[in-house]
Amino acid sequence: EPRIVRHLASGVLGDRAPEPFQRGSKKQAIVWDGKDDQGRYIDDKDKLVVRVSLGLKPRFERTLYWSPKKRIAPGHRPLMASAPEGVYVFEGGGVDHIRQFDHAGNYIRTVYPFPPDYSSEEARSGSPKSLQAALSKVIGLQWMEFPQDGRLMPVWHGIVQATLFTSGDNTGDRGLCKYGTAASAMALLPGRGAGEPGKLALVKRSLNRMATDGTTGGMSLEGPKTWVSMPGHEGKEAEVYPRSAAFSPDGKWVYLTGYCGSSWHWLPAVLRLEYLGNKEPELFAGSLKLGDEGNDERHFKCPMSVACDAKGRVYVADCMNDRIQVFDQDGKLLKSLAPVKMPVTINVHPTTGHIYVASWLLVTRHHTQENERVSPTLTHFGPMEDFRPIASYPLPFAGYHNGVFMNRTGGSQHRHHTQQVAQWFALFQLLVKRHRNLRPTKHYVGTVS
Q1: 3-state secondary structure of 363
Q2: Which of 395, 286, 416 is nearest to 342 (CA)?
Q3: pTM of the model
């Protein structure tokens, strides 16, 4: 099979032709030293052919060893949200990416890092401000003039200068976490019409806003802080971040919950903030006082996940109370949906209102029985008005143990489970209308429609 044994030279001829070409001349002479690209002499020179190619234009073919489905950092769970046009997947761990896949799992495009727009003359000019013009629809980037050539380039944050987001704990001006990530929770509000981009809310230390078209949609990138202070290691105060976020259907509010401190203390509260505002999150339901828990209408016991339906009602997975609490937009309790065994993650179908709950053993300080067992399960319930179990599906967690004893250390193992259930929920959001390839272990009533 023919192969290239030596690359002798390449470049553009003319007054600035690179060596070993002669500048300003159409007549060229290249001397070969008889070696291949590895520096070894070639004995059988009579079988070799010299190839000269002129007038070729370089064309990008592919990036070697790259795949859009490769995980960036196994220590961080991916955040996933679906829309009519596909699924948006956030990956973080020192470096942050947001990619869009279609409903069959095929890669569509990268939404972040922000794709430059070269449609304007200034963006194509190659001037020192050309990149700033190409990213003019990303509002809130910090720019720096580099002394080498006077070009303006966006400032990348963090120890390894690997993120343009300012929301996470991997930004150098906000923390010194080498393997941090821009978001611990992500919410998506799909666009209202064909071609209209949706809105994304990335939250961890603060809120970052962007649109699904790879811009900030006319909004400022950075919003208010989203962390709360809770006792950490050895009782010292530490920043604690939400693990769940949800948009109100009108896009005004972002609801936050799942704040977990040390020793598996969960803040018994749901917060909310104005997506386009600059005020810090306010209490929506529950209590901001650590330990102020209960099973009445005003309290939670380990709220872990939040979701909204098309009517703006807010659903909270009240895990250790084995129930789902449903509130109106003013924080008034509408209904308690129970029993729901240890709900950890909740999603509500945007059209049918059907409720999907994932349950598994997530150890908290409230666990007292060593023999308590919870099998990881996804349960499909009817809507709030006709709440009833319809079907259940096993969640195939790797290395999962359904007892308290083997899970008491929590930490990395439960983060791994949460990562897997995020993938499962994105799958169910994609397939829930058709229930393609799903095999329930149990049907409660009727059929899965």
Answers
A1: coil
A2: 395
A3: 0.81
CA gap 95, 107 in Å, rounded: 19
Cβ distance 141 to 152 under 8 Å? Answer: no
How many C-alpha atoms does 119 have within 13 Å on its Cβ side? Answer: 4
pLDDT tens-digit map of 82-117? 999 999 999 998 889 999 999 989 999 999 999 999
Q: Is the pLDDT of residue 364 over 80?
A: no
CB 155 within 8 A of CB 140: no
Q: Are 221 and 228 in contact (CB under 8 A)?
A: no
What's residue 370's pLDDT? 59
Q: Reading across the β-sheet that carries 333-337, which strands appear in turn?
A: 303-308, 314-318, 323-327, 333-337
Looking at residue 131, the DSSP 8-state letter turns out to be H
Q: What does the pLDDT look like over 5-34, one tens digit per residue?
A: 999 998 888 999 999 999 999 899 999 999
Q: Is residue 260 scored above 90 in pLDDT?
A: no
Q: How far is CA 343 from the centre of its chain?
A: 22
Dist CA 376 CA 360 (whole Å): 4
Q: Which residue has the higher pLDDT, 355 or 232?
A: 355
- Average pLDDT taken over every residue of the chain: 86
φ, ψ for residue 172, nearest 5 deg: -60, -30
Locate 298 and state its tokens. Answer: 């005003």
Helices marked H in 288-396 = none
Q: Sheet holding 95-101: strands in order across?
A: 79-83, 86-93, 95-101, 107-112
**Burial of 311 (C-beta count, 10 Å sphere; 0-12/13-18/19+):** exposed
Q: Rounded to whole angstroms, what are the CA distances from 215 to 112, 162, 274? A: 9, 18, 20
Cα 222 to Cα 174, 257, 360: the distances in Å are 13, 20, 35
CA gap 116, 110 in Å, rounded: 11
What average pLDDT score do residues 242-246 get?
96
Cβ–Cβ < 8 Å for 111, 100: yes
DSSP letter, residue 59: -
Contact 362, 376 (CB under 8 A): no
Run of H or E residues at 407: helix 404-407
Least confident stretch, 129-133, 346-350, 406-410: 406-410
Q: What 3-state DSSP class applies to 147? A: coil
Contact between 79 and 208 under an 8 Å Cβ cutoff? The reply is no
Helices (H), 301-377: none
